[in-house]
Design brief:
Layout lengths: L1 H8 L7 H22 L3 H9 L5 H30 L3 H19 L8 H10 L1
């Protein structure tokens, strides 16, 4: 949605430019609110849940380090991408975000209502 709104904002002579710019800002804020509620803790919490007891701290360290490295990459790449591609740069992030839905659904084991010991047993059995 944000990508579409930014596209219309950059159309020359578009009469609703101010409204779509305001809407895109509102969607940015909504995205970050729901991202913070739903996904922000995943790099810190999920590795501790899915790793065995002996690997739990190493998994948490790797998850946290990976999160910070990719955040750094996004911060470094985004200004250059926006300068080069304009609104089209957001298509890249849209594709990445959309690709994570099937990846998480298919490859991340569900850990709800299971103790850490249950998860440990689950991976030992498989």
């Amino acid at each position: 949605m944000i990508t579409v709104l930014i596209r219309y904002n950059e159309l020359p002579g578009y009469s609703g430019s101010k409204q779509v710019a305001s809407a895109s800002i509102a969607f940015f804020f909504l995205y970050y609110i729901f991202f913070g509620i739903g996904w922000q803790g995943v790099p810190w919490l999920y590795p501790t849940e899915i790793n065995s007891l002996s690997m739990r701290t190493k998994g948490a360290a790797l998850g946290t380090a990976t999160n910070w490295i990719f955040n750094f990459m996004v911060v470094e790449i985004t200004p250059t991408g926006i300068q080069s591609l304009g609104w089209k740069f957001y298509i890249i992030w849209t594709v990445f975000n959309a690709s994570f839905v099937p990846i998480v659904y298919l490859f991340y084991p569900e850990t709800a209502d299971r103790t850490l010991e249950d998860i440990d047993r689950m991976f030992r059995e498989e």
